[in-house]
């Protein structure tokens, strides 16, 4: 028997079936709320965290060990 996933609307958390016309949302209302969050900047993709070793190298450009 295939495993069924319990899909939920990312806005209101109501159950959603994958064949729903507004999938992955449960309704047009939730789809528009999500669009509004993107448009207002509420969703942010974080910038990558610099590696500590890379930050040290960048702060010491005259390091003779890196000349090799």
Strand and helix layout:
Blueprint (H helix, E strand, L loop, with lengths): L27 H13 L11 H8 L9
Describe the protein in words:
The protein has 68 residues and is mainly alpha-helical. Helices cover 31% and strands 0% of the residues. It has two helices and no strands. It has helices at 28-40, 52-59. The longest helix is centred in the middle third of the chain and has 13 residues, at 28-40. The termini are far apart. The model has no long low-confidence stretch (mean pLDDT 80).
Essential attributes:
mainly alpha, 2 helices, 68 residues
By secondary-structure content and strand pairing, the structural class works out as: mainly alpha
The backbone outline, from C-alpha atoms, is elongated
Count of discrete alpha- or pi-helical segments spanning 4 or more residues: 2
Q: What is the CA–CA distance across the termini? A: 60 Å
Strand content: under 5%
Radius of gyration: 23 Å
Q: Which parts are unreliable, with pLDDT below 50 for 5 consecutive residues or more?
A: none
How much helix is in the residues?
25-40%
pLDDT averaged residue by residue: 80
Give the biggest beta sheet: none
Order of helices and strands: HH
Strand count: 0
């Amino acid at each position: 028997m295939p495993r069924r996933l319990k899909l939920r609307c990312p806005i209101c958390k109501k159950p959603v079936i994958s064949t729903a016309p507004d999938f992955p949302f449960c309704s047009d209302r939730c789809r528009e709320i999500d669009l509004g969050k993107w448009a207002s900047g509420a969703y942010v993709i974080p910038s990558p965290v610099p590696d500590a070793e890379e930050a040290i190298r960048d702060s010491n450009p005259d390091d003779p060990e890196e000349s090799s």
